[in-house]
Structure prediction request, 536 residues.
Amino acid sequence: MAASFNSTFTRRTFLGSSAALLGTSALHAAPAPSPKFRRFEITDPAMPPRVLESYAKGITAMLNRPATDPLNWYRNAFVHIFDCPHGNWWFLAWHRAYIGWFERKIRELSADPEFALPYWDWTKAARVPAAMFNGVLDPNNSAFIGDFNAFKAKFNAPLNAAFAAFSPAQKSVLAARGVTNAAALFAAATPGPQGMFFNQPNARGLTAGNPNLDSATKTAVSPSTIKSAVRASTFAGSATGSGSAGFSSAMAATHNDKSRKGILESQPHDNVHGSIGGASGDAFMVSFLSPIDPIFFLHHANLDRLWDVWTRRQAARGKPTLPTGANLTKWSNEKFQFFIDEKGQAVTKITAGDYATMASFDYDYSPGSGEDQVPVAGPLVAALPPQRVNAVLGARGGAAPGGVAQVPKAVLAQADDAPGPVAEVTLNLTPADRGRRFRVLMSVNGGTPVEAGGITVFDHHAHGPTTFAVPIPEELSGGAGDTSAIDIRVMPIEPARDTGPAPTGTAPGAPKGNVPRVGSGPGAAPQVGAISVTTN
Prediction:
């Protein structure tokens, strides 16, 4: 059902969507020329100083473009609202295309023909890089639109014209997402925790004086979590079933549908977005207008880099790097309808398969966290057959909502180089939970709980059952007997929203009647619909 809106191998080894079927033959492919562009980690001393200068120059040029120009900064952010997939197997491909075309825009508008986006390795440094508080690299800068009323006044007429000019295929996507006209978009963008626009000085929650990611997010970007993510044995798992969601989240019918989130999307992706929202969770990075914050593109470049790490790891083991068979055809043929090139024209490459490799934009990355998971060529340690153990839900005497799963020791054992186990937590969300964050604590056999990761409700699926993946920490693999009782708890980081009378123009797809508003809610977590432990 469609969601409503609310190394030893070069990067050129993989020459198209058929790379998923390369098997061992790719291990003997001839080396290809080095990519033209290199994306550096933002604190890497080897990164030329002009990179951030050109980034700022390009951002300024986009901010100064008229609202009628597709190259305008905010028009670029609207594309994320119109078409971005979350919680399904097109998550990585769509964002590779989005940041790739954005990079070419900055290259053109900065007049720097060698520009390549930097990336932010949050595993290396779990804080917003200091440089991202300088000038227009900070969305609280005066060059950005400071309040919603000015934003609406500037873009109302141009957006109405854009919606009228959309093709039937584009309008079909927008209908599936519940944002069919400018009025619907502005209703969803209304300022506040349940909207998408944040008035200055709240455009970014973290500040130069307080740049650190919170504790749950530090766990979500830790080396152990990244190891669990890149050891996923498949690109995408089934929408249901005994196996994990896979590296790029699970299969779905279209990129407007939600399925199950994998570790990469559930942990570093969602929680970095949430943490940058700050303690109140009210800033652009928690909303679908998150590309208004320039740090969005550094964050997603690192996720794209980890896709490359995972791809090279799979290839080194002779394993598929994309879906296979009919699933490859299905994945490759999905159409992305809204991308604009550096000249302001609609792109001709509109399928997921067009972005299956980094050759689509001719770049690579300087080494970063996770590279230690790319082994030398050799046989992959045999993974266990897919297994799923359901937890018995309950609050356990006043503790946070959660459940206990009796998990066989063989599932918990994390052999060297083999995928580890994952807890999948399904929350029955309401619109009041949009933008909220939760800590996930786990313990074994009644022992001391440890922080396993976090959950941030980030995407247009902020209602109904939504499944998140949290890796089970290695220290929980001990204990006597053939099984271990894994206790998994969901702890709210901030209170729930109160509800009140619906204002005029509620978000598209939201339930009618009362809508959430900030208040002194009880702080309870949403209902935990299910918890299971599965092999990764």
